[in-house]
Amino acid sequence: MVFSTRGLVLGATALLGAGAVVTGAGLHLSSSWAVFRDSPKEVIDQVWQVINQEYVDGTFNGVDWRAVRTQYLNRNYASTDEAYTAVREMVDKLGDPYTRFMDPGQFQSMRIDTSGELTGVGIQISQDEETKKITVISPIEGSPASDAGIRAQDIILEVDGQSTEGMDINQVVSLIRGPVNSNVVLTISRGTQELSYTLKRARIELHPVRFSQKSSPMGDIGYIRLTQFNSNAETEMRNAIRELDSQDVAGFILDLRFNPGGLLDSSAKIARMWMDHGDIVSTIDRQGVEVRMSAERRGKLTDKPLVVLVDGGSASASEILAGALQDNNRAVLVGTKTFGKGLVQMVHPLRDGSGLAVTIAKYYTPSGRDINKKGIEPDITVELTEEQQEKLTRDTVGTQEDPQYLRALSALNEQITAQRSQIQSSAPEQGVSN
After folding, report:
1. Exposure of 278 by Cβ count < 10 A (0-12 exposed, 13-18 middle, 19+ buried)?
2. Domains of the chain as residue ranges with CATH
3. What distance in Å separates the CA atoms of residue 315 and residue 392, rounded to the nearest whole number?
4. 316 among known catalytic residues
5. CA neighbours within 13 Å on the CB side: how many for 70?
6. pLDDT, tens digit, for every residue of 118-133?
7. Nearest to 227, CA basis, from 238, 212, 211, 246
8. N or C: which end of the chain has fewer CB within 10 A?
9. In this structure, is the dihedral angle defined by the CA atoms of residues 98, 99, 104 and 107, taken in order, positive or negative?
10. Catalytic choice (45, 103, 265, 327)
11. Which residues are in the PDZ domain (predicted)?
12. What digits encode the pLDDT tens for the residues 206-245?
């Protein structure tokens, strides 16, 4: 089977202010939705039919989906806004925070434009399925949220003094978004603390890769930080590996901490830069059809030792890459357990300019692990104290002030030593000529 990754998104529920989105193609809706064309009911029926055809669970999580259609189409709607409210109610019945409806403004703000910029505060959020709390997946590096100190796993209690209790994620997104240079106050819960942050909305340039050459006891090594899997990630990662390899580094540290994910295709292509054989990921849809993505022969750029840094902010596409490298024994993982999102969404533009992200498949690591709600355990666990987390900023990450980086460096040096010993032991003995 040919596996097309067009339209497949691996990220958490909402990115403020934009998301890595590719619109889906090839959807064939039933002709019945056309009956409601140009009426508020049109979007309700179109959303219903997309979910009916594509949703990963054929039982719709125990919901009588046909009865839902009858329930919502038998109502009268005086306006499009009323219909949008009904659509959100309908989608919420699935109990899936990753399947979500976006009105035209929300859908447009999720698109990354050609300049690689987004507008907002720079956090990706999700809604807990059980508690319904709005949780930060990860701040975007260099964004107002990141610079202010917002962290993965923070819970957003209020936006500008308005409680988020009882709100769905789209309502929270609408409150947080706003004009560039305007302020928004987020009140968050972190453990036993309740903190408030005033953030200035901004235009954020999205350069997902930064890299540097660093010294170590075993020689220079390459440090690469990947902050998200957007359309620029593949090219920037390829350039980083080639540049560092040309400097004859002895090994690499790939930092996926606080990386909330992005495009499936991007994660697979980056995995192939590090490995030229083995499976990367498999997906299973609601028909039980399994599709595997594998590394390609002669595709990798380097076979030098590799250590990958992960934490609770490493989600979805990050987990695919980390899981592929771990299961294929290509890298050692250092840090803390990852977020645990093992679902794939397809994003569909709707006729009126709104959009729908629908969960269409589950994914599994090469060894068959289902990491959804479980995450990936690192090979070497390094927990950070509250004080250490406070000190970990854009300027200190990947430095001597970063305990997880220092442990990763130690693990990399061990790998480099082992590789050199293996090369020496396998080299033929030199004969002596008389």
Report:
1. middle
2. 8-107 (3.30.750.44), 119-205 (2.30.42.10), 209-342+362-420 (3.90.226.10)
3. 19
4. yes
5. 4
6. 778 988 888 887 888 9
7. 211
8. C
9. positive
10. 327
11. 109-177
12. 788 999 999 998 899 999 999 888 888 999 999 999 999 9
Rounded Cα distance, 329 and 317, in Å: 18
CB 222 within 8 A of CB 185: no
The identity of residue 288, as a single letter, is G
pLDDT, greater one: 27 or 154:
154
Q: What would the two tokens of residue 327 be?
A: 């299961």
Helices and strands counted in the chain (H then E): 11, 22
Neighbour-count burial for 23-62, b at 16+ CB within 10 Å, e otherwise? ebeeeebeeebeebeeebbbbbbbbbbbbbebbbeeebee
The pLDDT-based confidence of 3 (bands split at 50, 70, 90) is very low
Q: Which of 41, 269, 304, 341 is catalytic?
A: 341
**Separation between Cα atoms, residue 5 and residue 390, nearest integer Å:** 38
Q: DSSP secondary-structure letter at 424?
A: H
User: Which secondary structure element, helix H or strand E, spans residue 50, and what is its range?
Assistant: helix 41-54
DSSP 313-369: T--THHHHHHHHHHHTTS-EEEES------EEEEEEE-TTS-EEEEEEEEEE-TT--
Has 370 been annotated as catalytic? no
Exposure on the CB side of residue 105, measured as CA atoms within 13 A: 10
pLDDT in tens, 53-85: 999 999 999 999 999 999 999 999 999 999 999
**Nearest 5 degrees, angle CA 353-CA 86-CA 102?**
30
Per DSSP, 410 falls in state H
Helix, strand, coil percentages in the chain from 3-state DSSP, rounded to 5 = 30, 25, 45
Answer yes or no: 189 catalytic: no
Q: How many CA atoms lie within 13 A of 35 on its CB side?
A: 7
Beta strands of 171-315 (E only): which ranges? 183-190, 193-200, 202-205, 209-214, 221-226, 252-255, 262-263, 279-285, 290-294, 306-310
Determine the pLDDT at residue 373: 92
- State residue 424's pLDDT score: 79
The conformational region for residue 282 under phi > 0 = left, psi -120 to 50 = alpha, else beta, is beta
CB contact at 8 A, 329 and 271: no
Catalytic residue among 267, 294, 316, 354: 316
Quote the pTM value. Answer: 0.77
